[in-house]
Write a structure and sequence with these properties.
The protein has 544 residues and is mainly alpha-helical. The protein has 23 helices and 6 strands. Strands 1-3-2-4-6-5 form a 6-stranded mixed β-sheet, sandwiched between helices. Helix 6 packs parallel to helix 9, helix 11 packs antiparallel against helix 12 and helix 16 crosses helix 18. The longest helix is centred in the N-terminal third of the chain and has 39 residues.
């Protein structure tokens, strides 16, 4: 009998050892992939170029005034002055541009600005978010350990965070979401430990982390409220008193930014995309909930779009149904365990405390909050911890069928995540990463322009698209940017082609309007239109 017990214990120890080693190898491998891809990623979406322009210290109005002047400007200067902070540039950057977009609090951009001033062109600007994402791995380990006090659950949570394609995209995006994720983990871990013994030092650190979180993302307030829900449901009345003191102090310190939003409400609604969208059809709570569960799917599977803005599977009923089933199963299982592990209630409090308000707001206001997967980051982090708890519990269950369920689910989430994230990595390093906002078009246009020895790109296109294309171009390319305010824009372009035809090896016209295209043809200016497979060519190559 003792021999059988010792063998069983030995097998369990062997399984635990190999389980930990395998997860550590996965974490190390995917950390390496994150670093490599962040420095090779040339795809910058609309949000990223706007945020980098903001970080450089220039507003979009200043950029247009300084560059749309019918004078050639080198891509190197365009990126070096308007996509990174430039202390030596004239005119000097206006650092107040950091506060120009009230829907995005300034903490991440202040940190990014100082990072870029320190490293300049040494690394891709995406690396800053990647490093924060990597630093979040031990933070989510600590959070899971505080909740469940189980090293296997903590290690699996850290692994799923590392290999998740959704979080891989987050770490490749120049935005506040990576910092938001790190502060979600730190705040929640400090909250659990402070609530356990009402330690004043931990409560102070928790308050400070919440304040940093509020100055990182406005929806951080939902996480703080979720902590309050947990204390109320858990009937921790003494801890709830300390919590209200912490919440009041955090909100008080955030008041200056909140007052700025209230005093410039119309500007806030415009930049946040609220005032431009109407309520439209009658509210559909079920539809909002189904779309909100897209975040659950993207945790383990994401299509080829590297952009954090892309919402894969929104229109896939089967995938949404599976996600709803997984959420319901996890919720039911955690509810069964509440009496033995009360901290597991925190997972549900944050999961639904951050998801449901967004869904209801999006439904009632009707401007699509519930459809933006990136806003569900707190729910995604706690979903990862919850699913790790479920898997580990099944792996150690006495019932062999439950153990097979755990092995099957573990294999499914790891395989799907690793395959999906590896696919995104390959897309990045092969310079084929794309997303919404014409990413695929630039992927085809940029190589053609880069073949020229000294190309000139003439454009009256909006500044965002110009900057998106610039990141994919070689530094010898130059832009000739024209304001589309002129009614005789066609008459301006024709002489410019003649003027610069002998100064550049190739001349391209980027995103010309139908009017301009027709006028150039009538003027006898021949061109190659590409990419061929697009109905509306993105660029015209002027033939000499």
């Amino acid at each position: 009998m003792k021999s059988l017990l010792s063998r069983a214990q030995s097998k369990k120890l062997d399984f635990d050892f190999y389980f930990r080693v395998a997860l550590y190898i996965l974490i190390a491998a995917f950390i390496l992939l994150k670093i490599i891809s962040s420095n090779h990623n040339l795809y910058f979406d609309r949000d990223e170029v706007r945020k980098l322009l903001r970080t450089s210290g220039f507003t979009n109005q200043q950029f247009i005034q300084l560059t749309y002047n019918a004078e050639p400007i080198n891509v190197n200067k365009l990126l070096g002055q308007y996509q990174v902070p430039c202390g030596d540039c004239k005119p000097k950057p206006n650092l107040s541009a950091l506060t120009n977009n009230l829907e995005h609090p300034p903490l991440y951009y202040i940190l990014l600005q100082n990072w870029l001033l320190g490293i300049g062109y040494l690394f891709n600007s995406k690396l800053f978010s990647t490093l924060i994402s990597i630093a979040t791995i031990p933070a989510i380990y600590w959070l899971a350990q505080e909740i469940f006090n189980n090293p296997q659950i903590s290690l699996l949570s850290a692994t799923l965070f590392t290999v998740s394609p959704y979080l891989f995209s987050m770490g490749q995006h120049v935005s506040q979401y990576s910092l938001w994720g790190a502060l979600i983990c730190l705040s929640s871990a400090l909250f659990v430990r402070a609530a356990r013994n009402n330690n004043k030092l931990l409560l102070t650190l928790y308050t400070a982390t919440n304040l940093l979180g509020l100055y990182t993302h406005l929806f951080f307030i939902l996480l703080i409220f979720s902590h309050g829900y947990y204390l109320a449901l858990n009937r921790s009345w003494r801890s709830l008193q300390y919590y209200w003191i912490s919440l009041s102090f955090s909100i008080l310190c955030f008041t200056p930014w909140a007052l700025s939003i209230l005093s410039q409400r119309e500007k806030f609604e415009e930049t946040a995309g609220i005032s431009d969208e109407s309520v439209g059809a009658a509210p559909n709570v079920l539809g909002s909930f189904m779309n909100g569960t897209t975040a659950v799917i993207q945790t383990f599977w994401k299509n080829s779009n590297i952009s954090l803005l892309s919402n894969d599977f929104v229109q896939n009923p089967l995938a949404i149904s599976i996600a709803i089933f997984i959420l319901a199963t996890l919720t039911y299982y955690i509810c069964l365990r509440l009496f033995t592990q009360k901290n597991s209630l925190l997972v549900l409090s944050v999961l639904y405390g951050t998801m449901l308000p967004l869904m209801l707001l999006g439904t009632l206001l009707g401007h699509g909050l519930a459809y933006k997967v990136r806003y569900y980051l707190p729910a995604v982090i706690f979903f990862i911890i919850g699913i790790s708890f479920f898997i580990v519990q099944q792996l150690h269950h006495r019932d062999q069928r439950r153990r097979f369920l755990g092995i099957g689910l573990l294999s499914l989430v790891l395989l799907s995540s690793c395959i999906s994230t590896s696919n995104l990595f390959v897309k990045v390093v092969s310079n084929q990463s794309s997303g919404p906002q014409l990413g695929a078009a630039y992927e085809l246009v940029a190589p053609v322009i880069n073949q020229a020895n000294k190309p000139l790109i003439i454009s009256s296109e909006e500044y965002i698209k110009v900057l998106m294309l610039s990141h994919r171009l070689k530094r010898n390319a130059e832009f000739l940017l024209l304001s589309d305010a002129s009614s005789n824009l066609v008459q301006v372009i024709q002489p410019k082609i003649t003027e610069y035809q002998n100064s550049y090896s190739e001349i391209f016209i980027f995103n010309p309007s139908k009017n301009i295209s027709k006028s150039l043809t009538q003027a006898g200016i021949n061109s190659n239109k590409f990419p061929e497979r697009w109905r509306k060519p993105v660029a015209y190559q002027v033939l000499k």
